[in-house]
Design goal:
The complex is a heterodimer.
Chain A (H helix, E strand, L loop, with lengths): L1 E7 L2 E7 L5 H8 L18 E4 L2 E4 L12 E3 L11 H9 L8 H14 L5 H8 L9 H17 L1
Parallel strand pairs in A: 1-5
Antiparallel strand pairs in A: 1-2, 3-4, 3-5
Helix pairs in contact in A: 2-5
Chain B lengths: L1 E4 L4 H11 L18 H5 L5 E5 L2 E4 L4 E5 L8 H13 L6 E5 L17 H28 L6 E4 L2 E4 L4 E4 H9 L6 E4 L17 H5 L15 E6 L7 E6 L1 H4 L4 E8 L17 E7 L2 H10 L1 E5 L7 H13 L7 E3 L2 H7 L2 E9 L11 E7 L2 E6 L4 H12 L6 E5 L13 H13 L3 E4 L2 H6 L7 E9 L5 E11 L16 E9 L13 H18 L4 H14 L12 H14 L10 E9 L2 E12 L2 E12 L6 H21 L4 E2 L2 E2 L19 E5 L14 H16 L12 H4 L1
Parallel strand pairs in B: 4-5, 10-20, 18-19, 22-23, 26-29
Antiparallel strand pairs in B: 1-9, 2-3, 3-4, 6-7, 7-8, 10-13, 11-14, 12-13, 15-23, 16-21, 17-18, 17-20, 21-22, 24-25, 25-26, 27-28
Helix pairs in contact in B: 3-4, 4-5, 11-12, 14-18, 15-16, 17-18
Classes of the chains: A alpha+beta, B alpha+beta.
One FE2/S2 (inorganic) cluster (FES) sits at the interface of chains A and B.
């Protein structure tokens, strides 16, 4: 066990936990932020995607000891009231089926738009290829990302 | 106007209303549904609720809570079922709050997610629930205003008596309505007056999903809850022998490690316990990560059986079954052998498909808190009623003492029909005398499956000199499943028809997987049909339409035995032909067509693709669907799109293989699920508008797409694809 102080969604959290514990389980089990999902534990599905200093990372592969000063954003902290342009686009397109993969999809999509506000179709596919949706909502995911881009350009 | 008899269980209804006066209805708390609402929305919450029937209650301000009775696995019944109630109640959708009902079969019928039947089976009772409440509100207003009930109209939650100029919203009459007699008979709306049904309504859990609220079984957390994991045998056929857990027990956070008898000798099992293993090892600890680490430390000795089975063993055994004459035909019209021998042209083909894992994105899990005389369970399950029965036997407890609550499910696809994980959770909780949440790792989930069976099918067909289809033979075999629906198309359209089937018992546990049997037989049949049409020198759509014409005008055998309606079948095919501009020249893009009937619905598809080296790149799918009345088009299209992507993905990329009983794929690094880049660029869905009562939607778009894909791949490559996953076929790779 060791002590860590980690910046998550704008707040600093004090933790006493084994340093090898992946952020995924720190979030879910220790901080009760269960929006970040477990799907594979081996960086293959993207359900656990969070932002580390604005970049999409797989939290199942990020030990708490490796976070340091970097800032973490989870789906709970992406916006105050679910009104991030990507979340709004997801609501608009009614993307989800079971919904389980969608927090990860939204975190990957919002990180993509952070670094590339106007992605091409193939850039969208590339960026989203690490996020599996077993329900098969891929066509809606692509559409919603374009909706988010369009709304951003409009505002 | 349609009148239907109401069928409430009046005794249980009274029981629930008494409970409701305490602000609670059948153990659910409406406050739970307020999470995620803004303050302004919360302000509008009623001060008092009046329970009208088990399906709904009305607040003093006119807000209505509607219970969604069935498990939600992503098929979106949690929005669609309450829409039906709201329609007949005649309330504005914005004034509706939806809640997941607990298991209560006194009030709700068939609380099961499976067979694409939630809407079809619930259609009448949901309409009745809404119409009954509306009737009672009118009766209350009639009494209050001293006017005849039949002069009172309703609209968007407002009661009006035009002659006297009186009006009231439902909230004002709710208290009086809740005391009214339940009518014996109620009037249903004319579908042309529907204003909620057949309109796009967004998923009621949408905001919670995009903001990461706890919705799923895996998200459940209760006071004092521990985490539990299981260790199951490394291969099918192995059984538990002994355990050495000393070092694991000493690890940080670990409470206990012990063997569990999930199904002790003599317990009464249900069909839904398929896939359950009698004896496992449980690891219980404080956190998930600690349990995962401890699992690796536990040493279990397993008893090895005399015989172990592998994919290769099944390959041979299934082929042998195909070659062995069947004991009796499943269906026989005319004389196939004779017609086949005398045919001008003949063709014979064999198709195969591997085992598949369900791989719901949310792995199996369940919460249980079992004490001496009470069991509380909560989690993702498609068959709560059956789980309750098994628990009663395993825990030796009356069902009245067992409460099961359903969480939203991170996918089902049939996997959560088999609720052994709920039983495991209960047994572990009882042993450690604490509330626990059982969590499967992805590896546990993928390797203790109730897999889609492996299948093989052989077709033979014969044409006469005029290229008419005169002989059709099908023989299907599978592991623990015999594959064939002998009365489906083209039965009834071919004069000499023979269907045979057989199955192979295996150690590998198998079960229902989205669109059972259809998920393979449809693609194989529609690919074969394409080859037959080609041999006949006919357009594949025209060839199929000719056969439907025969089934309509001169059916073979008693048409009642055919379990499809050829008019509706032909209808979707014509619709997709028109919408896809089938006859147009489409340059370098290859197209394939397919049509299938299952779960009481008809689907026809045209798929257009280009080959990118060895991979199909699907540019567009046109899909025509006849599922009767579409409750919620925006989510209905989602189901159709999902089924299409699911079908293309599994047929192209996925397989589960076994070596000496051990699953060879354990996680998504070795099990290829379709990804974003591999998904179709565009899917366009067209529904037939015919006003017929609604039928299945969660499954029917999956089976045929595999045929459309194979047929388009043939057009692009000149090679036919007989064995799934297609990506492994030499023609593609080489
Ligand atoms: S759980 Fe982290 S990528 Fe799957
Ligand atoms: S919506 Fe179910 S896994 Fe993506």
């Amino acid at each position: 066990m060791a002590n860590f102080s980690i910046k998550i969604n704008g707040k600093t959290q004090e933790l006493e936990v084994d340093g090898s514990t992946p952020m995924l389980w720190v979030l879910r089990d220790h901080l009760n932020l269960v929006g970040t999902k477990y799907g594979c534990g081996i960086a293959q599905c993207g359900a656990c995607t969070i932002h580390l200093d604005g970049n999409a990372v797989r939290s199942c592969q990020l030990p708490v000891s490796a976070v340091g000063e970097k800032e973490i954003t989870t789906i709970e902290g992406l916006s105050e009231n679910g009104d991030h342009p990507v979340q709004k686009a997801w609501l608009e397109e009614d993307v989800y089926q079971c919904g389980y993969c969608q927090a990860g999809q939204i975190m990957s999509a919002s990180a993509l738009l952070n670094r590339n506000p106007n992605p091409s179709d193939s850039e969208i596919e590339d960026a989203m290829n690490g996020n599996i949706c077993r329900c098969g909502t891929y066509t809606r995911i692509k559409k919603a990302i374009k909706t988010a881009v369009a709304s951003d350009n409009a505002s | 106007m349609t009148l239907i008899k109401t069928s409430f269980n009046r005794r249980s209804f009274l029981k629930s209303t008494t409970l409701a006066s305490g602000g609670m209805l059948l153990g659910f708390s409406w406050l739970a549904s307020c999470k995620g609402k803004t303050e302004a929305e919360l302000m509008q919450m009623p001060k008092e609720w009046f329970d009208i029937n088990g399906f709904l209650k009305i607040g003093d301000n006119g807000i209505v809570t509607i219970m969604s009775p069935n498990p939600e696995i992503g098929q979106n019944v949690k929005t669609a079922m309450p829409m039906i109630v709201a329609e007949e109640l005649d309330i504005a959708w914005k004034d509706v709050i939806v809640e997941q009902a607990p298991l209560n079969t006194d009030i709700f019928k068939r609380q099961l997610a499976g067979g694409s039947q939630s809407i079809r089976a619930g259609w009448q009772s949901l309409r009745m629930a809404g119409a009954t409440a509306r009737h009672m509100l009118i009766a209350a207003a009639a009494e209050a205003w001293q006017v005849p009930a039949k002069e009172i109209t309703t609209s968007n939650g407002v009661l009006t008596h035009e002659a006297s100029g009186k009006s009231a919203n439902y909230g004002e009459m709710a208290s009086a309505a809740s005391l009214m007699e339940i009518p014996e008979e109620v009037e249903l709306k004319d579908p042309k007056d529907f204003h909620i049904i057949s309109t796009d309504r967004k998923n009621v859990d949408g905001l919670k999903i995009v903001t990461g609220k706890p919705l799923f079984g895996l998200d459940q957390k209760e006071e004092g809850m521990l985490t539990a994991m299981i260790i199951h045998p490394p291969a099918f056929g192995y059984t538990f022998k002994s355990l050495d857990a000393e070092s694991a027990k000493a690890m940080p956070g670990i409470k206990d490690v012990f063997p569990i008898d999930v199904y002790p000798e003599g317990v009464e099992k249900q069909w839904s316990d398929g896939g359950g293993i009698a004896k496992l090892v449980a690891v219980v600890g404080e956190s998930t990560w600690q349990c995962m680490q401890a699992k690796k430390e536990v040493k279990v000795t397993w008893e090895k059986p005399d015989k172990l089975e592998s994919t290769a063993t099944y390959e041979e055994a299934l082929t042998e079954l195909l070659d062995t004459p069947a004991k009796a035909p499943a269906r026989k019209d005319g004389d196939f052998e004779k017609a086949f021998k005398g045919a001008a042209k003949v063709i014979e083909r064999t198709y195969s498909a591997p085992f598949l894992s369900h791989n719901t994105m949310e792995p199996m899990n369940f919460f249980a808190d079992v004490t001496a005389d009470k069991a509380i369970l909560k989690g993702p399950i498609q068959t709560p009623e059956f789980l309750e029965k098994t628990l009663a036997s395993v825990l030796n407890m009356p069902v009245e003492n067992i409460d099961i609550m359903m969480t939203r499910m991170g996918g089902g696809f049939g996997r959560r029909l088999y609720g052994h994980f709920g039983v495991e959770a209960a047994v572990i909780s009882k042993k450690v005398q604490a509330p626990i949440k059982l969590v499967y790792t992805r590896e546990d989930d993928m390797t203790q499956g109730t897999y889609r069976p492996a299948y093989k099918v052989r077709f033979k067909a014969g044409l006469d000199n005029d290229n008419n289809l005169i002989a059709w033979y099908v023989k299907g075999v599978g592991t623990n499943d015999d594959l064939i629906f002998e009365n489906r198309f083209p039965a009834g359209a071919v004069p000499n028809y023979l269907a045979e089937k057989d199955m192979l018992q295996t150690q590998i546990t198998t079960g229902a997987w989205r669109a059972p049997r259809s998920n393979f037989i449809a693609g194989a049949e529609q690919a074969f049909m394409d080859e037959v049409a080609e041999m006949a020198g006919k357009d594949p759509i025209d060839f199929r339409l000719e056969l439907f014409e025969k089934a309509i005008t001169a059916p073979v055998g008693d048409p009642k035995t055919n379990d499809y309606d050829p008019e509706r079948y032909a209808g979707v095919l014509k619709l997709v032909k028109e919408k896809s501009n089938w006859n147009q020249n489409n340059g370098d893009k290859a197209r394939g067509v397919s049509a299938y009937y299952c779960h009481n619905s008809y689907v026809a598809q045209v798929l257009e693709l280009t080959m990118d080296r060895n991979k199909p790149k699907v540019d567009k799918v046109w899909c025509a669907v006849d599922c009767g009345i579409v409750i919620n088009p925006i989510s209905a299209r989602n189901q159709i799109e999902g089924g299409i992507i699911d079908g293309i993905g599994h047929a192209t990329y996925s397989q589960m293989t076994f070596k000496d009983g051990a699953p060879q794929q354990e996680n998504f690094d070795s099990y290829h699920l379709i990804r974003n880049q591999e998904a179709p660029k565009e899917i366009e869905t067209f529904f037939v508008d015919n006003g017929i009562d609604p039928t299945g939607l969660g499954e029917p778009s999956l089976p045929p797409i595999i045929g459309a894909l194979a047929n388009a791949m043939y057009k692009a490559t000149g090679k036919r694809f007989y064995n799934q996953p297609f990506i492994l076929e030499k023609e593609v790779v080489g």
